[in-house]
Amino acid sequence: MIKKLSYKIQGVLDRINVIYLRLVNIFANKYALNVEQVREKKIIISLTTYPKRFDVVHITLETILRQTFKPDMIILYLSKDELRGYPIPDYILKLKKRGLTIKLVDKNLKSYNKLIYVLEEYPNEILITVDDDILYSRYLLEKLYEQHIQYPKEIIAYRCSLMSKEFEKKLSPYLSWKNAKNIKKPSYNLFFTGVGGVLYPPNSLHKEVLNKSKFLKLAPLADDVWFKAMSLKNNTKVVQVFEDFIEFPIINEKSQQNALWKINNGLNKNDEQIKKVFDYYNLYKYIS
What is the structure's pLDDT at 124? Predict the structure, then answer.
């Protein structure tokens, strides 16, 4: 009873927050990027979206533009193909004055757009990916960066599952993996999911990560699977920001109707793609 009530209260607070952020989008004009520090490595936040989510992505962007710890760049990648007949709305374009960079790409890599292109262009910077329909905390970047200072070579994420395997070369089903809790050290077993926000330090992923033909063949609908595999191939461990798994609220449940996770989970596509990638690169040895 108390748990249900707390969920309802949180839901109301989230809806109020969305209304507030819509008002911020109308009236705010303050530049939101780092102008105070000259950093050795830039901190770049990257995301992608498509026209059906234009009505929510600007809310996500508002949460990124009001971070307590300011990034050096915020880049929104959009596919030229998907924009045909769908002009970018003014409420997104106006964010350029506050620091948003919009980049149009020729080849649409779907969910991979959020990391592959920024990784190609800025391989030596600190890259942080976020999803396009989430209400992020104002402390998202601050807490990621604090963990990065402590573990500068590891991937940092808010939302991880704990991978497990049944046999030497057979992982347990994806949906059986538990939410990561009380994990205090870097681990190969932590499977990071992009929805929570992920920080990639330079050289944390194997150079094979940019092999488009490979990931489109082995894991076309599962960028998280591919990026995890490329971290293992590079001997990079993962650190969860807090000891317990963190879930950020979705802005609008309707935006999830065509979400990849529903396809992957509902049709067991995650297990299929994980097996293909792990078999191809022989990665089972990393998982205990």
Answer: 98
CB 154 within 8 A of CB 236: yes
Taken in order of first residue, the domains within the chain and their CATH numbers are 20-286 (3.90.550.10)
Radius of gyration of the chain (CA): 19
- Here the tokens at position 163 are 């991978």
Cα Dmax for the chain:
57
Give the C-alpha distances (Å, rounded to integers) separating 173 from 39, 165, 279.
Answer: 42, 8, 15
DSSP 179-203: EPBS--S-BSSEEE-GGG-EEE-TT
Q: How far apart are CA 255 and CA 53, in angstroms?
A: 7
Q: What is the mean pLDDT of residues 161-177?
A: 94
User: Tell me, what's the pLDDT at 3?
Assistant: 66
pLDDT for the residue numbered 146: 98
The confidence score (pLDDT) of residue 250 equals 95
- Give, in order, the Cα–Cα distances in Å from 5 to each of 2, 221, 226, 240, 251: 5, 36, 38, 28, 20
256: three-class secondary structure by DSSP: helix
Q: List the structure tokens of 16.
A: 């109020």
**Which distant-in-sequence residues (6+ apart) come within 8 Å of 197 by Cβ?**
128, 129, 130, 136, 140, 144, 157, 158, 159, 248
CA angle 54, 56, 59 (to 5 degrees): 120
* Residue-wise pLDDT tens digits, 92-121: 999 999 999 999 999 999 999 999 999 999
Q: How many CB atoms lie within 10 A of CB 95?
A: 23
* Closest among 60, 54, 47 to 91, alpha carbons compared: 54
DSSP state of 112: G
Report, as an integer, the average pLDDT of 150-176: 95
At 139, which amino acid appears? Y
